[in-house]
Amino acid sequence: MLLLAVLLGFVIAPLCPALCRVLGSRSAWLVALAPAVIFAWLLSRTGAVVSGGEVRFGMDWMPTLGASLSLRLDALSLLFALLISGIGTLIVVYARGYFQDDLRLGRLLGCLMFFMGSMLGVVLADNVLALFLFWELTGVASYLLIGFHHDALKARKAALQALLVTGLGGLALLIGLVLLGKAAGTFELSAMARNLPAGGALLPAAIPLILIGCFAKSAQFPLHFWLPSAMEAPTPVSAYLHSSTMVKAGVYLLARLAPTLSSDPTWTWALLVFGGLTVLAGTCLTLAQRDFKKLLAYSTVTSLGTMVLLIGLGTPQSAKAALALVLAHGLYKGAMFMVAGIIIHSTHRKNADEIRGLGSIMRGLWFIALLAGASMMGLPPLMGFLSKELSLEAVLYGAQGSPHALKSVLTLALVAGSAAAMIVACRVAIEPFVRGSGAAIDDDDHPPHSPGWTLLAGPAVLAVLGVMMAVWPGSGSGPLIASAASVLHGSPVDSKLALWHGFTPALGLSVLAIAAGAVLFAARRRVVIASERTLTFLAPIGPAAWYDRCMTALTFGSAALTRWVQSDRLRIYSAWTIGTAIAIVFTLALLGNGPAGGSAWRAPLAANQDRGAPLPESTLALLSIVGALLTVRAAGRLRAVIGLGMVSLGITGLFAVMGGPDLAMTQIAVDALTIVLLLVAFASIPELRRISGGATRARDGAIALAAGLAMAWLTLAASNVQLAEPISAYHSASAVEQGKGRNVVNVILVDFRALDTLGEISVVATAAIGLFVLIRRKRPGVST
Q1: I need a surface site. Which of 254, 542, 570, 599 has the fewest CB within 10 A?
Q2: pLDDT of the residue at 782
């Protein structure tokens, strides 16, 4: 069933457009069955998994490379898989209402299912190479989803930006995972922690590369800028990718590798520093936003930084807090995105300053928004409050051994992030629904209307679950979070979750964050204006500006390189191709990395220096050299052809005197055909009017000489390399018995390599036909 859970999304995805064409928007109900079935099966396994059990599946993929399609369902992967499949079901229903009369619904559903399968593969894969495959598939799926409105330039640019940032991070991740697997002697995640040697030589290189990949995927500073830009995607996509799934992939992998790498100081400090910077950056950027989705996006950046920070603390309390926040964030942020989408869909406006008074029209939506918003603010009795209390306690008590300055900065970051979450929740869940000084939406060309139940079902379920899981944590969420935290921490974590812990410093900080958020919300006009001015001043040195500069430089550089390399001149193309081959050959020769070791490359002449050079061979070689010089110095085509004939004559003679008469005869036939072709072609081409300059001819001569030396070097080196037993003995022994002939060469060509000979005959026949056509071709004024 594990394999089916991963593959079901990939199977359903290509069928969605056809289903939509036949059934219309009703096809969404069939599509929603896929994630619903997966969610139901995962729920049925929750009890066994939380108790410490696992579900496994294994299948060989590329055993020589250590890659296998091994899947594992434990508590950590179960938590993420439940979010992916559960919220995925609600998103499909929500998308039906959002795109009810849109012909593109089938394409959207197909991309969503493709993405769901990819994400389930990431969280269920136990082999890191298989995990990376699914990791990259999530990038492809997100590119398609973010660029869903492909006719809009902003959507295309945002999709490309997300693909480039996460894709380049993925390349770093691949190298890091391969190094980690080599260090551990296995590519199975479940075995790495046991087999990885302490202080391995590969770890200092592997850890930064893995962190880059995870930070890029989970939008950590300074790679956070792609996530808000991705809000160009339709709201169902934003609610799914950027609240509970794609951006959590990096967090998941950090949590999965934490037991293996948490003992390394680089790992710990990187998570703490970059997590804290991400929280602060997300908080500051949130204050300057007016767009509903941008507000939610930057608050997501803040939450992701908090998760990374908590994983970096490395204590049982921080592990439990991180996963409680993963669950709470998936519930309230998914609901908030859907609420924002309904507002945008109903009013055709995105600016939070322009919408007021929706409460009288959308009372049901307002109630749902208040529940989800209260959880985001961290108010009791909601899951957001519980996760915030755990996070603050983890920083206050889990960082006791850390420097006081670091503890203060982390605490300040969490309080600031909670205050920013309060502002966002108020602007999305309260401000649009109350009467105020906003725009008169009743005068809009598209008056707002009450949403249908398909739009309300998703956020309603998530908002209610946010209450139930906090009020009754022992009913399932508490044991699941504790069991997943035990996997993250590498040792058992207590399962106690409670809304009330007494009057603690964490509670005081929580109240302080709420009060600060309320004050900032009351002064939001001035805060937004001041933040916008500050960001405008800092924008030229921000990460997004550097990305734009890099893309501009890349575009300019590629255009310049294209003009330089692709000059539409055969001579330049040949020079680049031959020059590259020469560079490879001589680099290998200098490094001594040949197929049979360095000796065959460093000194091939040494192995041939005892071979004599009789007079006939020397004379024929000299004839070829003279012909080559005449060809190079020729001022006309006919002289060049005569020079080439001398070269061919010398080589043919060498074949003949060195025991290869058949080869000499073949060489004569080929040379004759080549010369005839050249002469016929030259008859139709005007005579040379301009001879290349001295510098050009010197360059071409140097390239030609280097190519000749490289080929000579390769030939001599190859003559001393024996990778396997020679087959000449077999051919000699089998020529009479199997081929019925004593001429071994003829038997090889006619019997043992008959198909190869047939191919060569076909080539010669094709050339002969071409020659015949050229001879028969007549042009005015041209004698044939």
Answers
A1: 570
A2: 47
